[in-house]
Design a protein that fits this description.
The chain has 323 residues and is mainly beta. It has one helix and 28 strands.
Length: 323
Amino acid sequence: MRTPRMMKWGIFLLISLLMSCASSQQQEEHKTLWTVAWSPDGKYIAAGGDQDELKLFDGRTFALIKTFPVKDVQLSRVKWHPTQSKLAIITQSRTIKARILDMDSETWTGLKGLESGFRALDWNHTGDLLAVSELDDAVSIYTIEGALVSRFIGDPKGVADLDWHPNKNIMVTVGSQIGIYNQYGDTLRTFKPRTKETFLLCVEWHRSGKFFAVGDYGDFEKGDDKRLQFWDLDGKKLHEINRSMGEYRNIRWDPNGTKLATASDALRIWSEEAKLLDESKSTEDYLWGVDWSPDGKYIVTSSSMGKIVIWDDKAKVIKILKQ
């Protein structure tokens, strides 16, 4: 059962996700694209959000090749299977919730037992397990066939993102705290990233598996002081950055683990030592989704005004995709 405290945090996060695009939508009808992902084989780019459809682009020509209807939901994240032609999606909805799309047969597999969907979604390193978060506090783990393996409380105020370790069956989750869990939901470690109450929106392990990066919304009361932090498995803070004017919505390491791309008021690219390497011009069209091409030469982003942009690895615009 939801408590008033849980509902407060759920409402807060939903409001914060929508605030950035409200002013633009008053002037002209734009619908946010919350998520974008490049397939590991480089063939496809998938994107979705508030536009009632999952969009599929050619990963080489960047042409829109197909759309799948996803009506009346906020499609909050998509994740490609590491080796198979399958795409997992999660929505902030009590109808569609989370599903797996088989690209070869163009058929969907639903995940049974979910009461709602939120925005955390990831395959483990072997691709036989899929973890998803619900609106309040739960994380559920499924097989690739859609069978429930385990379910546990990942964060008392909601799991906004999670990421499986690159070579172990453990995951890191973020929300009001950082949590590290195994595939059965056993708690390995939990800790608060800051003394002030905040909400973390994104997390990703470094390719080495030795540390991970987290990005937050900022201080809970005012939304100020947004930070990007690097932490190791023992809960030791390695680096901290507070450069961004916008919250860190999504982050992604390049295939070699030498560069971290962050989506906020600008596209920024950081080194493993948290040094700023490159950045785009800051804009009111805040970025949401971000991912690297499998060869590490390009970055794709999606935005609050519904744009999908291809960048080079120096944060220079290559192409704005036609939809």
